[in-house]
């Protein structure tokens, strides 16, 4: 899933072609095998694309890469049509949570063997690997990740006597309560930030929806999921975030930039918007992973980012697999992560971003990452999104179990169109 780029949310490659307006890279040699790669707009710099293209073609004689940038708007229909037709590209970047819907078409190449034998899939970030695995077969190969962290105002923390970030939820609530005053909001948390809620639900052992003997059903009314909502309500009350809107209404970075907000939950990239709105905060921003229930590990977070897929009808299977092997291998993962401030696809590669405070905090959280339910119909749930009004209802005093049951029933109906 494409993370909202305040968070993102994080993103895909701008090719030479994208800059020049042409449909393909020029200069293909006669007799060369042309491998077409679709990458999404804003995932990486043009410089990265060019470096990768030169290196790959040098190492794979007789292969030319035709990298084409794609817009996120309308990409679902375009990929679906390509998978059904006979002229699909050889490699496609997709949002990590989109893999199940493409796999349901039967049009994807199964890369389970390569994943287990060659690519070290046991070390992949779960939030990227899990949605790429459908019915035990690995169709989506993790490329990069982004997730939410806590962005905080160092001056406000210092004024409150807080010298280090909280290590667990109890400390987080206590610190946030200390920060919350007449003049300062302890945290800005919009009432309908459902991705953040999902992390709290997962941390408690709950799920948004679960599969049972092939059927999916909403599960927001489980005791564990209700505990996640209760924690969200406690935290949200320690600030002035709207109960009936999400983090984009108004844009939370703009609210934070006014200087009276101690914390907000967002991808580290949101710091750029804060600094643009208020340059005086440039040196006052800090980052820490969303705290977990104990000191042992950070809280569970929704992982956004991208996977790479290969259409089953590709005429260049060997070369397509080689492209994915290169892009997801240590060399180019490290390059992409440090160039674009992303989390690499493996936990073992996290040290590559230790020098980048926001990205390092993001990487620590990504180790506990999850993705939305692996149903091909989940996109329909997000389009209707009964989770948002459920959250608002609870924050406004409705009975949590009753409201959760209504939302769960709606999720169930959407998963069976």
Layout of SSEs?
Blueprint: H1 16-20, E1 33-40, H2 46-59, E2 63-70, H3 75-84, E3 91-95, H4 99-103, H5 112-117, H6 126-132, E4 133-134, E5 137-138, E6 141-147, E7 149-153, H7 154-159, H8 169-179, H9 194-203, E8 209-212, E9 215-218, H10 223-236, H11 252-256, E10 263-266, H12 270-277, E11 285-288, E12 301-309, H13 317-327, H14 330-340, H15 357-366, E13 369-370, H16 378-384, H17 387-395, H18 400-414
Parallel strand pairs: 1-2, 1-3, 12-13
Antiparallel strand pairs: 3-12, 4-5, 6-12, 7-10, 7-11, 8-9
Helix pairs in contact: 9-10, 17-18
Describe the structure.
By secondary structure, this protein is of the alpha/beta class. The protein has 18 helices and 13 strands. The protein has helices at 16-20, 46-59, 75-84, 99-103, 112-117, 126-132, 154-159, 169-179, 194-203, 223-236, 252-256, 270-277, 317-327, 330-340, 357-366, 378-384, 387-395, 400-414; strands at 33-40, 63-70, 91-95, 133-134, 137-138, 141-147, 149-153, 209-212, 215-218, 263-266, 285-288, 301-309, 369-370. Strands 1, 2, 3, 6, 12 and 13 form a 6-stranded mixed β-sheet that branches. The chain has a 3-stranded antiparallel β-sheet with strand order 10-7-11. A two-stranded antiparallel ribbon has the order 4-5. α9 (194-203) packs across α10 (223-236) and α17 (387-395) runs antiparallel to α18 (400-414). The longest helix is centred in the C-terminal third of the chain and has 15 residues, at 400-414. The model is unreliable at 2-29 (pLDDT under 50).
């Amino acid at each position: 899933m494409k993370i909202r780029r305040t968070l993102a949310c994080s993103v895909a490659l701008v090719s030479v072609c994208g800059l020049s307006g042409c449909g393909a890279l020029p200069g293909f040699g006669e007799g060369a095998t042309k491998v077409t790669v679709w990458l999404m707009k804003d995932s990486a710099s043009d410089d990265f694309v060019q470096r990768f293209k030169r290196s790959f073609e040098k190492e794979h004689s007789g292969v030319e890469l035709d990298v084409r940038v794609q817009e996120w708007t309308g990409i679902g229909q375009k990929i679906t049509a390509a998978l059904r037709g006979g002229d699909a590209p050889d490699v496609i970047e997709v949002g990590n949570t989109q893999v199940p819907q493409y796999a349901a078409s039967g049009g994807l190449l199964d890369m389970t063997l390569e994943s287990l034998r060659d690519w070290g899939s046991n070390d992949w970030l779960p939030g990227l690997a899990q949605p790429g695995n459908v019915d035990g077969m690995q169709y989506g190969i993790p490329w990069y990740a982004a997730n939410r962290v806590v962005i905080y105002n160092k001056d406000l923390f210092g004024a409150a006597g807080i010298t280090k970030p909280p290590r667990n939820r109890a400390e987080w609530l206590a610190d946030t309560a200390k920060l919350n005053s007449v003049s300062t909001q302890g945290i800005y948390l919009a009432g309908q930030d459902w991705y953040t809620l999902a992390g709290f639900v997962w941390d408690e052992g709950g799920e948004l929806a679960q599969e049972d003997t092939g059927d999916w059903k909403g599960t927001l009314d489980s005791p564990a999921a209700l505990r996640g909502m209760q924690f969200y309500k406690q935290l949200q009350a320690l600030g002035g975030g709207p109960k009936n809107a999400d983090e984009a209404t108004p844009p939370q970075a703009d609210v934070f930039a006014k200087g009276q907000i101690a914390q907000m939950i967002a991808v580290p990239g949101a710091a750029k918007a804060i600094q643009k709105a208020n340059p005086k905060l440039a040196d006052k921003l800090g980052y820490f992973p969303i705290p977990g229930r104990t000191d042992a590990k950070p809280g569970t977070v929704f992982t956004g980012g991208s996977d790479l897929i290969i259409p089953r009808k590709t005429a260049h299977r060997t070369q397509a697999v080689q492209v994915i092997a290169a892009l997801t291998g240590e060399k180019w993962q490290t390059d992409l992560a440090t160039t674009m401030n992303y989390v690499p696809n493996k936990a073992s590669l996290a040290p590559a971003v230790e020098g980048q405070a926001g990205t390092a905090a993001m990487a620590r959280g990504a180790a506990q990452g999850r993705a939305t339910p692996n149903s091909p119909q989940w996109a329909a749930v997000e389009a209707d999104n009964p989770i948002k009004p459920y959250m608002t209802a609870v924050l406004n005093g409705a009975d949590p179990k009753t409201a959760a049951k209504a939302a769960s029933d709606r999720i169930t109906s959407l998963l069976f169109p």
